[in-house]
Amino acid sequence: QVHLAESGGGLVQPGGSLRLSCAASGRIFSINAMGWYRQIPGEERELVAAIRGGSTDYADSVKGRFTISRDNSKTTVYLQMNSLKPEDTAVYYCNVVLISTSGTGIYWGQGTQVTVSS
pLDDT value at position 70? Predict the structure, then answer.
């Protein structure tokens, strides 16, 4: 069994900051990639940022404002979000590609609401 635990969402004013966390636990052999997606009701889920090894990738809309990182154990991924805008409002989902006792799989967190509003 693999479990992803997200935290860190909430309400923030435009220009503010939030930090999301996602911790993976369970019978994990290795983690290939970790990332964050977001979704607005009625729209498709979109990639926000991803990290694989030492490489990172960002959506154009968040470049220069968001930073993705991992802890030393490589099982927790963070998304530091600065200079937040109302259009960043969405449910944010953690995504992990890993190898466990069940083989290679893609896992999703439960989602955390981020609301940017004055």
Answer: 95
Question: What does the pLDDT look like over 63-103, one tens digit per residue?
Answer: 999 999 999 888 999 999 999 999 999 999 999 999 998 89
End-to-end CA separation in angstroms for the chain: 41
Q: Count other Cβ atoms within 10 Å, centred on residue 32.
A: 12
Q: Is 30 exposed, middle or buried (0-12, 13-18, 19+ CB in 10 A)?
A: exposed
Residue type, 48: V
What are the strands, taking DSSP E only, across the chain? 2-7, 10-12, 18-26, 28-39, 46-52, 55-58, 66-70, 76-81, 90-100, 103-108, 112-116
For 29, the 3-state DSSP assignment is: strand
